[in-house]
Design a protein that fits this description.
mainly alpha; 5 helices; 168 residues; elongated
């Protein structure tokens, strides 16, 4: 439904396509090319930024691994919302890099700094909330017959229950 580049945007006139492509030229972002260029792959792996982005991807998604351990339906919904957030960030990100701020892109640099600071705050808040939730769960389950150690995990292991349902 949405075009993958200004070249294929059917809603744009020929002149508007040319202007959009010219804007890409001005920004030095180029138009998508579907051909694999081996020398560019090699160059990407030689660029230190690739490894920094990889590390950011890993540390940014460790929380995903932690929060996606729910009963199956809740897990799918959680992953879908996480993916929606990922997409929203990727759509919003380019708007922080203004051509007028080239070559330093101060707004873009600050958007990364603020985003990572917000990420740290959210992770710390999530850690606090999950720690409290785990303490509450352990307290509730310790009052059950057999306590925490005597709990029959086989009874609920494959029953597609959410973490909240599993407390009952």
């Amino acid at each position: 439904m949405l075009p993958d580049s200004p070249v294929t945007a059917k809603l744009l006139t020929h002149r508007q396509r040319r202007l959009a492509i010219e804007k890409l030229r001005e920004n030095q972002t180029g138009v998508e090319n579907k051909h694999l260029r081996v020398y560019q792959v090699r160059e990407a792996f030689m660029d230190y930024k690739l490894y920094f982005f990889f590390v950011l991807g890993v540390v940014g998604n460790i929380p995903n691994g932690g929060i996606s351990n729910f009963g199956h339906t809740k897990k799918v919904v959680t992953n879908a919302v996480l993916f929606l957030g990922y997409c929203t960030g990727n759509i919003a990100g380019p708007f922080f890099y203004k051509t007028s701020q080239s070559p330093t892109y101060s707004l873009g640099s600050w958007s990364m700094i603020v985003s990572h600071l917000v990420e740290v705050v959210v992770i710390l808040l999530l850690w606090f909330l999950l720690s409290n939730e785990n303490k509450r769960r352990d307290w509730i389950q310790s009052d059950e017959i057999g306590g925490l150690e005597g709990r029959n995990l086989d009874a609920t292991a494959f029953s597609d229950m959410t973490d909240r349902e599993n407390l009952k």
